[in-house]
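Bench log, entry 3. Co-assembly request; chain sequences pasted below exactly as received.
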Amino acid sequence: MHTPLANIGEFGFIDRIKKQATRKNSSTIKGIGDDAAVLGYEPNEKVLVSTDMLVEKIHFDLSYMPLKHLGYKAVAVNVSDIAAMNGIPQQITVSLAISNRFSVEALDELYAGIFAACEAYQVDLVGGDTTSSAAGLVISITVIGKAALDKIVYRHMAQPTDILCVTGDLGGAYLGLTLLEREKREFLENPDMQPDIDRFASLIRRQLKPEARLDIIHELAELGIIPTAMIDISDGLASEVLHLCKESGLGAVLFEDKLPIDKETYNVAIEEFKISPTTCALNGGEDYELLFTIKQADFEKIKNHEDISTIGYMQKDTAINLVSRNNQVLPLTAQGWKHF
Ligand code: ADP
Ligand code: MG
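Structure output for the full assembly:
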């Protein structure tokens, strides 16, 4: 089916969305349907706001990104920014610029992904804007979250000797993208070929359906841990470590053998692309894991956590170094570990 958007019109389209936007959070007083949404936060809650814009051909490629995944990812990356402040997301607004090649069915797919993420992260879709675009698709999402003032975690508060921690594993999303781009290239050269991506499903999933680590934010609260500093890993671990260090006025030491790299990431990096798994972990983007620092005194509480790795420590000396497996000390740079 390819129903032109003009058939139902902008108001018809907004009506469809409004029907599906159910309220989950008491901070949502009025959602879609008036000139503005109305939100109400408790006196002890601070309000966090963050926006991300995704532009077709720049941030995503619809030839391998299904619209449903795009909708989910666009919400997840916003939720990740609230998680990185140690906050809980509450509402989103979604603004779209769409060209006339998008049908009602295509937009339904996009919103199916958006609503799936709203469910997964318990956020309310409370508004947005819809406009036309001459060419590509643009999605801008604003997320609103909450946190008590004394629980908010900034990038600049890390202290010397704090332990650097990272959630999940790294480098998978980058390899997922590299695999998808390889398949696309091969398909363009030979349209009869069958895509060979099933055996890489888990890495491709890391690229197409990343998850914000809101689960870790809840777990840290249960463990009684407030990180001293935190950032989400969108541009690669190395770049985010440099941000934390710069903002905190400190340096850091990381250990190569502590970097969390999944077995499949490791194998695909070496066997399919002949690149270093460490480089993927340090410089591959879009993992949306969390990088944070904790006081030494909190180490006991997380040392057995399956999904948190301790990868190094902060230091007063502003040098930022990586200690390799064979004990070489190499300066960490955002472009990658030149040595490889
Ligand atoms: P206005 O002309 O006042 O900007 P609109 O007709 O654009 O109002 O929007 C009507 C309602 O629908 C508002 O509540 C708005 O937030 C919501 N809305 C518009 N576009 C979207 C969208 N793409 N996704 C979610 N809500 C939307
Ligand atoms: Mg409007």
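DSSP finds ten helices and 13 strands in the chain. The mean pLDDT is 95.
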